[in-house]
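INPUT
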Amino acid sequence: MMVTVWKGLLDPIKPHSDIAIIVTEERWRHVVEKHVRNPREPWNYWLTQELADGLRAWAEKAPSPGGGRPPECLNRASAVLEGDARLCLGRPLMVRYRRKEPGLKPEWGVMTWQLVLPNGAVLIIRWRGQKGHFWTCFFEGKITNNIERPHTLWREFAKKLIRRYCRKDDKHLVAPLRSAEFVRVDKETRWTARHTRVEFVTPTSWGFEGDQPGAPWSGLLLDWKAEPPMTKPGRYPRLASGVDLEVRHV
Amino acid sequence: MSEINIDKGAGDPMGCLQSLADAASDPALEQFEGGGEVSLKARQAACRLATALGECRLFGVKPSEGLDGTLPPRMATAASEELIAQVSHARAVAERLPELWDECGDAMEAEELCLGLVEDRLSFWAATVALEEAFVGALDNSMAAASGLDRAWYQVLVEIERLDAAMQKQRSFLAVATETNLLDNWRGFLVAPHSDLLPWVLDGALEAAAAELETAALATRPQVAHTSAAAEVFEGAAADGGGLAGTAGHRDLKRQTPILRILEETMEHLAEAFRQQFRPEAMRALAADSDKKKEVKVLWDSKQDLAPLRCIVYRERNGDLRLDFSSTDDTHENQTFEVVVKEQTRPTVTFRRDPQTRELFGEVRIPRDELPEADLSKLTFRLKKS
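OUTPUT
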């Protein structure tokens, strides 16, 4: 069941257009069961103790078969995530790739966006056709023990992504080529997941010294506030202020 | 360590200096300036500082004067205590990794769990480098015993050994790290003597585990019937001026998961055959071979990543067979191909461009009644330009 739609988010790929992300109760249930319940993930700090407890209590109940209105706590939590997603897409600090794995349609890969939020959480969005879907959100590993200093958290996670996906040239890590492919094979089922066309969106906001694949990484991730946010231009050109327009009948 | 200056381009390819600056500016470290009790926050801050400083040592990055130095014994002891807790937690994760993998409920998060464990092991290594430096420095000043650093340092080594033992049992899970550039990047930027004293995660053990997985997958790889495939390649090319054909035999189409990758590779190999058709010398060779009704052996190369065409075959829940084709060749846009499976022409496939991803794709469905299970021991399919 759909909880909400995050509308009017900046599209970091096409800065002049908007995107919408569909948020469903099913995916929220996953996030609560696997992450909000995990005491090592600082959701209480992020969402407030009261809201996080509300989510945990909601997840204890079985999903209602007939649907109905989503509980208030889901709407509030969705609004918090939406706010951070807006910040992230405005910078943007996002890796996108096509993830291919058996059983996941389409089989040539699902366009996946991995957003690094300002508090260090990771938000995953998956695309089906033109529709973006909120897939999951979590805090990664042991870096979460410093939640009071969120700028260190997102930097640590962003650095991890850079170390995973960039490749080494002589003296630098450089942005991956779009043809690079990262394959993951599972032990038990031997399924193969592939991340192809890995792309650090707007490389300069990740600290790369250029916008092309192969640009070296400076080793620096600029502070969130120091990054000028991308501004959305109006849909139509407007007259600059100070220009007088006079209309006369001829 | 209060003055923080990071010079851009100061020979810091792995981004260690910014982490060091972040760690060194943590207000929790002020607790070490007094003689009071050290809180958990301060221990964690000390551990982060040790990790960041250790990374600088590992990668030969020289911090600025305000950031460089050896951890004082009291801070190193606190960092060791926190490190012991973190290593102990990582060991618990490693011991339960198969269960945790299943519990993740999402493949991507399961991979993240494994990758995170490998990354944690590397950061523990970095922390021990800085702590060892502090321990040796404290020995020189006879401060190690007084601060409790000697006991804590010894315990760190014991815990890491236990962690390694637990992780090594899960090598096949942790091998996901080999499919990223993480390990190569670490090895590539290490400086001596650290580059000669690698922890097990960097010494090739994970690559060996990945190779074992690959070998196990190959054991169930289908046999490719080269003879008929090659003949069809030529016949398709001669009759239609272009085409793609291939044969993939497999033992059990129900076991969908290993087959997918294998068929992807099969199609890569077939795509190479497709390219070969347009080379005149290859055409002549194929024609000559065909005339003589000889076998044409097509080489297998699963490492090709430039294949213009790819196909994934899988069985849907209702038993139908589905062939998904994608192409990276722009000339295929809006072109229609006949799909021939087991000598019968099936619905055609037309490559359309995904408006968002710009990729070309098409699909064909074959009802299960048309391809009974017994007939699938050897599946032949072919693409011909319509």
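end of record. Residues 53 and 69 of chain B are 9 Å apart (CA to CA).
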